[in-house]
Write a structure and sequence with these properties.
Layout: H1 3-26, H2 33-39, H3 66-75, H4 89-127, H5 130-169, H6 177-193, H7 197-201, H8 205-218, E1 267-270, E2 276-278, H9 279-286, E3 294-295, E4 304-305, E5 310-312, H10 314-340
Helix pairs in contact: 1-4, 1-5, 3-6, 4-5, 4-8, 5-6, 5-8
Biased composition (Acidic residues): 29-38
Organism: Lactarius akahatsu
Main location: nucleus
Length: 341
């Protein structure tokens, strides 16, 4: 990852972990022990810093200019590894391997920073004082957008290397590999940077999941409006009549198993139709053979699924537990109000 991007991710991670410590310390007794076990692997280290609630903090943002960008692009690509001769098929495979390395970086970013930031934002929405939560959520929203920008940059390197690999495979003569790499990566970055906020983030699944997790806490049992409504309109955005192609709407997450009709337990999600079921219920319905397909039991779904199509869904399991915890707390609050009256 380019140097300035790595510093930016580290800075965000430090701030996110500080927020997570402060938030979790407020309500540590409210979090289920098993949920803590699910979250713990995602926090390889804990900072000793403490956050004063309501106190503004500046997130360090490294300065950079176009010269830094060019140096960063060059830093991640070793021209000497390919020599001055036209690239051959072995060089093409090397390019393909470099693209795979970038893909692994993207995967790790998704499994660490994206997931952690979404979890912290959910905790802030649930536990922080109302006066301070909106300001803090706005700051976390900015972090999420920057993470998406970083993901876009990583994907630009990956796509460029794959494109160059295909050009080598098809027999195109390439001698100016570094120049092509720099120009193509920078072209993709420039195209992204000229977009408006809505054009950058409204289609992002990560941003939609981030906003969804907050909305579920603040507006239980309500479907989230289109993601575009959380993003400011800027010059260059389409009119309302033309925005259908970029709007991504939230959905009301059903935490009940379509078989048992009660909250999901050890949820398993089908890779075919994306419907989720309690593990024991779906295994009993599908039978012992992992490859015997049966009609999906979700209402209105005609897809055929088998045990081999199912994958554990830890994120959904976390959501179910959080939903149940919030519901129990609301019920306790209502009981307390009735006693006072």
């Amino acid at each position: 990852m380019p140097r300035y991007r790595r510093r930016a991710v580290e800075a965000m991670s430090d701030n996110i972990e500080e927020d997570d410590d402060a938030t979790q310390n407020q309500e540590v007794d409210a979090v289920d022990a098993d949920e803590d076990e699910d979250l713990q692997p995602r926090r390889p280290r804990r900072t000793q810093s403490r956050v004063v609630r309501g106190a503004p903090r500046e997130t360090p943002v490294p300065e950079r200019d176009e010269a830094d960008d060019a140096q960063d692009v060059a830093a991640v690509f070793d021209e000497t590894a390919f020599g001055n001769k036209p690239l051959n098929r072995n060089d093409g495979q090397r390019l393909h391997g470099m693209a795979a390395d970038w893909n692994m970086i993207r995967k790790n970013l998704k499994e660490s920073a994206f997931s952690l930031l979404t979890e912290v934002s959910t905790a802030v929405a649930e536990y922080a004082d109302e006066d301070n939560s909106e300001k803090e959520l706005d700051r976390l929203d900015g972090f999420m957008r920057e993470l998406i920008d970083i993901d876009t940059e990583i994907r630009s390197h990956e796509q460029t290397l794959n494109d160059l690999h295909q050009q080598v495979v098809t027999g195109e003569e390439i001698t100016d590999i570094l120049e092509r790499y720099q120009v193509q990566v920078q072209g993709k970055l420039d195209a992204h940077n000229t977009k408006t906020s809505r054009q950058k983030y409204a289609k992002s699944e990560a941003y939609a999941a981030f906003r969804q997790s907050i909305y579920e806490v603040q507006h239980p049992n309500e479907a989230m409006p289109p993601v575009v409504e959380f993003l400011p309109r800027e010059e260059g955005d389409h009119s309302d009549d033309d925005e259908d192609d970029i709007q991504v709407g939230g959905v009301l997450q059903d935490i009940n198993c379509p078989i048992t009709l009660i909250p999901l337990v050890d949820p398993q999600t089908s890779s075919i139709c994306q419907h989720s079921f309690s593990a024991q219920a779906i295994r009993q319905m599908l039978g012992p053979n992992r490859f015997t397909k049966k009609k999906c039991p979700a209402s209105g779904c005609n897809q055929m699924i088998c045990l081999n199509d199912l994958e554990p869904n830890k994120e959904l399991e976390r959501k179910v537990k959080a939903y149940q915890r919030r519901a129990q707390r609301r019920e306790e609050d209502q009981d307390a109000e009735e006693i006072v009256e």
